[in-house]
Amino acid sequence: MTSATRLDLRQGFQSILPLMVAVVPIGLVFGAVAATKGLSALEAMLMSALVFAGGSQFVAMDLWTHPASIAALGTAALLVNIRHVLMGASISRHMTEFSRRQKVMSMLFLADEIWAVAEFRARGHRLTPAWFSGAALPFYLAWVLSGLVGALLGAMVGDPAVIAMDFVFPAVFVILIAGFWRGSDTGLILVGSGAAALLVHHFLPGVWYILGGALGGVAMAAITSRRAREVRV
User: Fold this and answer.
1) C-beta separation of 10 from 131 below 8 A
2) What is the tens place of the pLDDT at every residue in 36-58?
3) Domains of the chain: total
4) Residue 213 sits in which domain range?
5) Which residue, among 158, 138, 140, 161, has the nearest Cα to 150 in the 3D structure?
6) How confident is the model at residue 165, as a pLDDT?
7) Residues 23, 146: contact at Cβ < 8 Å?
């Protein structure tokens, strides 16, 4: 291993470390929730390892029944994770030093937090497989192991709202959004997305509000982008 590779690995780990600390409580809560739904510690750990998507895992637990409705769970997971198509398209632009296999493997470990720090990195530095591995793999292990511990502790974690752990998930995303803030246009996109999500949630049951919020944000982004082009012309 060259010194440049070791440096990239270390810098990737340093970039993701604050978000790793933040994701551990979320993983603990997921494990505890999974245990209350009847999943064993092994099953909770495997779900975190194979799905690796906190949002869809929590939605799945919310919809979990015995026997589980595979169609409902699959549809919910698809709606929650459809954003990965956009994140993958965005980050792949910076993966010029990745082989095809490395790109595919990297997408399997793509999460909101990893995508965000990778985008930040690409603003001023080249994105390398070593840097991405240094960021993605420790974060992945933190998520899987914290879910396992949460499932083992089970009832000891208790109601996450009582100890304010339920706020950690949205707090992480607020921090990520702040990092991408680009003035009033960003605010308009957030308002459009939020308004669309609330509107869909009011009229349609289930998790369709997630898709509604995404489409609302995309529509507002298109409007603001078109307005900016007209101003330049």
Assistant:
1) no
2) 888 899 999 999 999 898 888 88
3) 2
4) 181-233
5) 158
6) 56
7) yes
152: which 2 tokens? Answer: 């083992």
Stretch 229-233: mean pLDDT: 63
> What predicted TM-score, i.e. pTM, was given to this entire model?
0.77
Instruction: Find the farthest-apart pair of alpha carbons in the chain and give their distance in angstroms, rounded.
Output: 61
Average pLDDT for the chain: 82
In a shared domain, residues 100 and 207? no
Is there a single domain that holds both residue 49 and residue 31? yes
- Mean pLDDT value of segment 9-23: 91
Domain identity same for 13 and 103: yes
* CA distances (Å), origin 78, targets 35, 42, 203: 23, 24, 20
Other beta carbons less than 10 A from residue 217's beta carbon:
22
Asked if 131 and 214 sit in the same domain, the reply is: no
Name the domain boundary from 137, 163, 180.
Answer: 180
Closest CA to 218 of 192, 195, 198: 192
Give 94-99 contacts, CB < 8 A, sequence gap 24+: 94/118, 94/119, 94/122, 94/126, 94/127, 95/127, 96/126, 96/127, 97/126, 97/127, 97/128, 97/129, 98/127, 98/129, 98/132, 99/129
Helices (H) and strands (E) in the chain, counts: 11, 0
Specify the 3-state DSSP secondary structure of 81: helix
